[in-house]
């Protein structure tokens, strides 16, 4: 960069966008195995869509996402996590229908934020699914978001195999060079 600071791929990022793919229905699409979290049957489409849209709107903005992070692994991670600021700004979160296979529907949840805590996107997806399937009430989710505290297993951490880092946004244009010569 021109101001003398060195570029760092993580610390120089303005925001990141993750995509998470899941499916609903009685059967898992066999071509999507290990790339899509199959959550089973969901309520009727209007109820599912309405619940998911409400929770996505609720999660947008700057909040204490302490309840949406994974447990630390080891003493060093526990010490670091105790000192970590858990406030993050989720700029956009939305779910879109991607495809239909027989009676199974595949969706993508796209999340853009200024920073993310350990396993945060996967816990956000777990909360979206819990509210969408009516296992968690919006009022309970709003309380968890307001306090930054989750009491137990109100929602699960979505499995890793549906998650992809889709894009990293920087303030300056980057002229990438190929590593191959």
**CA(first)-CA(last) distance:** 24 Å
Q: How many helices?
A: 4
Helix share bin: 25-40%
Structural class: alpha+beta
Record field, number of beta strands: 6
* Low-pLDDT runs: none
Average of pLDDT: 88
Gyration radius (Cα, Å) is: 18 Å
Biggest sheet features: 6 strands, mixed
- What is the chain-wise order of helices and strands? EEHEHEEHHE
Shape: globular
Strand content is 25-35%
Describe the protein in words.
The protein is of the alpha+beta class and 181 residues long. The chain has helices at 45-59, 74-83, 120-132, 138-147; strands at residues 13-24, 37-38, 61-64, 87-101, 104-113, 163-170. Strands 1, 2, 3, 4, 5 and 6 form a 6-stranded mixed β-sheet that branches. The longest helix has 15 residues, at 45-59. 29% of the residues are buried.
Helix and strand layout, with pairings?
Layout: E1 13-24, E2 37-38, H1 45-59, E3 61-64, H2 74-83, E4 87-101, E5 104-113, H3 120-132, H4 138-147, E6 163-170
Parallel strand pairs: 1-2
Antiparallel strand pairs: 1-5, 1-6, 3-4, 4-5
Helix pairs in contact: 1-3, 1-4
């Amino acid at each position: 960069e021109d101001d003398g600071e060195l570029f760092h791929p993580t610390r120089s990022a303005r925001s990141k966008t993750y995509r998470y793919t899941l499916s609903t229905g009685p059967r898992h699409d066999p071509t999507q195995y290990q790339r899509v979290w199959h959550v089973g049957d969901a309520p009727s489409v209007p109820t599912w869509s309405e619940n998911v849209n409400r929770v996505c709107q609720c999660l947008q903005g700057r909040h204490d996402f302490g309840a949406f992070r994974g447990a630390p692994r080891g003493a060093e991670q526990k010490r670091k996590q105790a000192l970590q600021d858990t406030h993050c700004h989720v700029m956009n979160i939305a779910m879109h229908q991607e495809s239909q296979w027989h009676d199974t529907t595949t969706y993508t949840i796209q999340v853009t934020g200024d920073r993310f805590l350990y396993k945060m996107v996967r816990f956000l997806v777990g909360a979206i699914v819990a509210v969408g399937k009516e296992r968690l009430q919006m009022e309970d989710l709003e309380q968890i978001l307001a306090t930054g505290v989750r009491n137990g297993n109100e929602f699960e951490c979505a499995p890793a195999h549906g998650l992809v880092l889709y894009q990293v946004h920087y303030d300056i244009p980057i002229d990438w060079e190929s590593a191959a010569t």
